[in-house]
Design goal:
With 435 residues, this protein is α+β, with helices and mostly antiparallel strands. It has 10 helices and 18 strands. It starts with a helix and ends with a helix.
Length: 435
């Protein structure tokens, strides 16, 4: 650019400043910053039916109709249908919708469902590379002498981590839990401290472990809601290892044992997680199932037998899939709004939602579309890189629950050339007050 032109331009700007028409910035960098203002834009959001689930699903506080007349006689739940379980919690993790809640925040014995945390820590170690599936741990006398369900490890023998994973998940082996705990932390007591620390980190707010197996111990407790959190984090964080939860039987040391999770065989879509039983807490189970791409997680406890546990868990899972469904509000990559751009080659940038947004509603019931508000500071200064987080979409559901999702730039927007930037800044400073 000719030097004389720049000199004349600077002189023009200075004259205008002296005349009171232009406010000169304090620094050169300030010239490049757009005049920021908080933008809130309400958007009409028309739910788009999901290809997998063409209907709609249950709000958290709505109780669906029972599957059969007998259900009405069951002990009531605070949310959802009645159940024989003393504690029950069902959630659709894709929408965070609670479909069933019965004393789900009341402390209860974790029983063998606490083994899910032992497994979660093993998965932590494997994913971090600090442990390998073929790593071996020696079986101590304490491990060998454990009562209850066992993997039948021999004193002084060594077992691989993969065998111990199967022994804990499929066989519910208390001996395998102690072997892992001592191998990773030196003692079961030290491992329990680690379990509690990890529980707090992932949001299990009302849980305290005293051992690795769930063996009855004073001061050991959890809640149905916390176990659902643990189940979902296991599925979400470690899909490469979650496959072990769906194995129906396993043979170790020439002893074949069946997985106690009967729903793996009787309820379509079931792929985990863990059963449990203590005299104090009764029979319980944490279950996950997927149908047509939709997952439900159910926790029950306080049932009177293995048969009742299997029947009640299967009934509740069928109810959850039958009486509720998900509707897509936005698909991943959908544009929510266009935001103005400051000093960009394009004057607008699409703001897109990076993940699919779904809502859960009762099956067959029409619902008002959710309210969507896009929030961002605009105009947005160029250059803008695609994928940069620029704002938030606030989605208010028909039941008045509010959820927030990030908004990202849907395209790259380079900066204007030098001449265009100068002209745009002069135009803004001279005439921006008119807009």
């Amino acid at each position: 650019m000719p030097v004389s032109f720049l000199t004349d331009l600077r002189a023009l700007v200075v004259m205008l400043a002296v005349a009171g028409f232009v406010a000169l910035p304090l620094t050169a960098d300030a010239q490049q910053d757009p005049p920021k203002r908080q933008t809130q834009q309400k958007l009409p959001a028309k739910p788009k039916p999901s290809a997998a689930a063409p209907k709609a699903a249950a709000p958290a506080a709505a109780a669906a109709a029972p599957a059969a007349p007998k259900v009405e006689q069951l002990p009531p739940s605070q949310v959802g249908i009645g159940t024989l379980a003393r504690h029950a919690f069902m959630v659709d993790p894709q929408t965070s919708t609670v479909l069933l809640f019965k004393d789900a925040e009341t402390p209860m014995p974790p029983s063998s469902m606490s083994k899910m945390m032992t497994i979660f820590i093993i998965f932590d170690e494997l994913a971090a590379g600090r442990l390998k599936l073929d790593t071996r741990f020696r079986v101590s006398e304490k491990a060998r002498n454990m009562g209850g369900s066992r993997m039948f490890l021999e004193l002084g023998s060594e077992a691989t981590v993969e065998d111990l994973i199967k022994g804990i998940i499929i066989l519910s082996g208390n001996d395998a839990c102690v072997t892992i705990a001592e191998g990773l932390a030196g003692s079961e007591e030290a491992f329990a401290e680690r379990m509690n620390k990890r529980a707090r980190e992932i949001g299990m707010t009302r849980t305290n472990f005293r051992n690795a197996s769930g063996w009855p111990a004073e001061g050991q407790y959890t809640t149905a809601r916390d176990l659902a959190v643990l189940g979902w984090r296991t599925i979400d964080d470690y899909p490469q290892y979650y496959k072990y939860y769906s194995e129906t039987n396993w043979t170790y040391n020439n002893i074949r044992q069946e997985n106690r999770n009967r729903l793996l065989k009787i309820t379509p879509g079931t792929d985990g997680l863990k059963t449990g039983h203590t005299e104090e807490g009764g029979y319980g189970q944490t279950t996950s199932a997927v149908r047509d791409g939709r997952r439900l997680i159910l926790v029950v406890n306080g049932l009177t037998s293995m048969a009742e546990r299997a029947q009640e868990t299967a009934r509740l899972m069928e109810w959850g899939f039958r009486e509720s469904t998900n509707t897509t509000v936005f698909r991943a990559g959908d544009m929510v709004v266009e935001a103005p751009v400051w000093l960009g080659a394009q004057d607008k940038v699409p703001l897109v939602i990076p993940k699919t947004v779904q809502i859960t509603m009762p099956t067959g019931q029409a619902s008002a579309p959710p309210r969507v508000v896009a929030r961002f500071d605009g105009p947005i200064a160029a250059p803008i890189a695609k994928g940069t987080k620029l704002g938030t979409a606030v989605v208010t559901l028909p039941d008045n629950r509010t959820m927030e999702y990030p908004l990202e730039a849907g395209a790259d927007v380079p900066r204007m050339g030098v001449l265009s930037r100068v002209a745009t800044m002069i135009q803004h400073y001279m005439f921006g007050w008119l807009s």
